[in-house]
Amino acid sequence: MNQLSEIKKIDIKKGGKKTQDDIVYEHIFDAILEQRLAPGTKLNEESLGDIFGVSRTIIRRALSRLSYEQVVVIRPNRGAVVASPSNEDTRRILFARRVVEKAVTELVCEEADKAQIEQLKKSVRDEQTCFEKGDRAAGIRLSGEFHLLLAEIANNPPLLSFQRSLVSLSSLAIAQYENHARSHCSYDEHFELIEALANGDKPLATKLMMHHLDHIEEKLNLDDHAAPSDLKAIFSNVCK
After folding, report:
1. How many domains does the chain have?
2. Could you tell me the pTM of the whole model?
3. What is the DSSP-derived secondary structure letter of residue 238?
């Protein structure tokens, strides 16, 4: 039994009800959030099976789930690739984000208790720490997970499902089009948003969320493209 198989077994035991499909899905989803998987990267089933120490059937199920969320494109007879949002796709993604984030923000203002507000603060503190340490990939992932946490607190499963797809698609669009000569201030904006949420101030919280999304869009350079990366290098962390 190889080391990857041992890692999967440990993860399944700790996760309780997690299946191998879940674990492979989460690794690929995290790689997309961290922008380690570039748009257009070919997701070879055999290579992924070797990397994760699982069968191609399990890889196919994980890729099918990601395809449902539109972050992976499964091409008949040609295999799967990471989605590459076009300029117009990116505009639509951000429009949809604004619609969903507005609803989520309003619900969090109504639903969030003190423990959940503290959970949000911890998430953003972790995000800030990663960026300050120079761990950009983890910082980007935590920035996206902050928005998923908001959707969880909103306590509306359909919105959470939409949000998972939109956040990962946004990460792909950012990886493809963001101007790299920029600074990260997402955690500052997240802290401001949390304060408004804690006070139950819907108008201010909504205004801050829209400003945050505007800021993300303003940093996009639609002529920039990211190159695909090597799968084994991308998932090297699962061997550690």
Report:
1. 2
2. 0.80
3. G
